[in-house]
Amino acid sequence: MKIVMAIVKPFKLEAVRDALTGLGIHGLIVTEVKGYGRQKGHTEIYRGAEYAVTFLPKVKVEVAVEDDMADRVVDAIAEAARTGQIGDGKIFVHALDKAVRIRTGETDAEAL
């Protein structure tokens, strides 16, 4: 099993969710986060004063999947989140050792 974690632009969340639903993914976790990468933030003007925004708003999407689905999930997220502009985000894949559905006690693949 794998955890696929994607950091994407907030306005791309619905497209990512739709792409994952199209693959048969039924559950995901979404967290609002802030961060920066190569763009290192930007400057904005508010009420005539210029200030630096060093941490940009992003959305973290986490999905637990079986090993054979991980590459398809990564491809679907990348396609749905891509704008071609700097700051599109990143996707990380982690090994998942164990999963337990608390309500039923099901474990591993059955718990997903």
Automatic annotation (TrEMBL):
<keyword id="KW-0805">Transcription regulation</keyword>
<keyword id="KW-0597">Phosphoprotein</keyword>
<keyword id="KW-0804">Transcription</keyword>
<dbReference type="InterPro" id="IPR015867">
    <property type="entry name" value="N-reg_PII/ATP_PRibTrfase_C"/>
</dbReference>
<dbReference type="Pfam" id="PF00543">
    <property type="entry name" value="P-II"/>
</dbReference>
<keyword id="KW-0547">Nucleotide-binding</keyword>
<comment type="similarity">
    <text>Belongs to the P(II) protein family.</text>
</comment>
<dbReference type="InterPro" id="IPR002332">
    <property type="entry name" value="N-reg_PII_urydylation_site"/>
</dbReference>
<dbReference type="InterPro" id="IPR011322">
    <property type="entry name" value="N-reg_PII-like_a/b"/>
</dbReference>
<dbReference type="InterPro" id="IPR002187">
    <property type="entry name" value="N-reg_PII"/>
</dbReference>
<keyword id="KW-0535">Nitrogen fixation</keyword>
<feature type="modified residue" description="O-UMP-tyrosine">
    <location>
        <position position="51"/>
    </location>
</feature>
<protein>
    <recommendedName>
        <fullName>Nitrogen regulatory protein P-II</fullName>
    </recommendedName>
</protein>
<dbReference type="GO" id="GO:0005829">
    <property type="term" value="C:cytosol"/>
</dbReference>
<dbReference type="GO" id="GO:0005524">
    <property type="term" value="F:ATP binding"/>
</dbReference>
<dbReference type="GO" id="GO:0006808">
    <property type="term" value="P:regulation of nitrogen utilization"/>
</dbReference>
<comment type="subunit">
    <text>Homotrimer.</text>
</comment>
<dbReference type="GO" id="GO:0030234">
    <property type="term" value="F:enzyme regulator activity"/>
</dbReference>
<comment type="function">
    <text>In nitrogen-limiting conditions, when the ratio of Gln to 2-ketoglutarate decreases, P-II is uridylylated to P-II-UMP. P-II-UMP allows the deadenylation of glutamine synthetase (GS), thus activating the enzyme. Conversely, in nitrogen excess P-II is deuridylated and promotes the adenylation of GS. P-II indirectly controls the transcription of the GS gene (glnA). P-II prevents NR-II-catalyzed conversion of NR-I to NR-I-phosphate, the transcriptional activator of glnA. When P-II is uridylylated to P-II-UMP, these events are reversed.</text>
</comment>
<dbReference type="InterPro" id="IPR017918">
    <property type="entry name" value="N-reg_PII_CS"/>
</dbReference>
